[in-house]
What does this fold into?
Amino acid sequence: MFENLTEDIKVFRQHHGGSWLSFLYYPMFTAVVLYRFSSWCYRHRLKPVAYLTVRLNDFLHGVWIGPRVKIGPGLFLAHARGLIVNPDTVIGSRCVILQNVTLGGPNIVVGDDVLLGAGALIISREHRVGGLAIGDNAKIGAGAVVLEDVPEGAVMVGNPARDVSKKEVNC
It folds into this structure.
């Protein structure tokens, strides 16, 4: 818990700087701390405490990240509101998640250094074998609806989401 939290603090300071009191003020950081605590409790067989902490995070911040979700170090919730993450989700290191993002459905795997824009929906269909994967360094635009795997470094926009990173621009 503390290794990941140390990395979370570094990322938070890169974005906001500030004193130690600012960590308590910003809901985006306290939401991450509550998630890390619930995950730690779950792994140490304190499941009632873990689920109560999830409920507290939901009540205080509108963030529902279950204790079974695996998230690497350096998580940054740019605006901690309206976030829902399926319990079977795995999120890599140094990911940035904006407000009103849903990661729904089983077995979603998000790579490292991924940006999930405001209102993005990442939906894994239940009948899909292996879930849904978002590659490292991908960016999911605001309001994008992702229903298929996302390659590494892709920039996905629209509904349904399409990759615009390789589009040629003629000037």
The chain has one domain: 2-161. Residues 2-161 form a domain with the UDP N-Acetylglucosamine Acyltransferase; domain 1 fold (CATH 2.160.10.10). The longest strand covers residues 63-65. The chain has a mean pLDDT of 89.
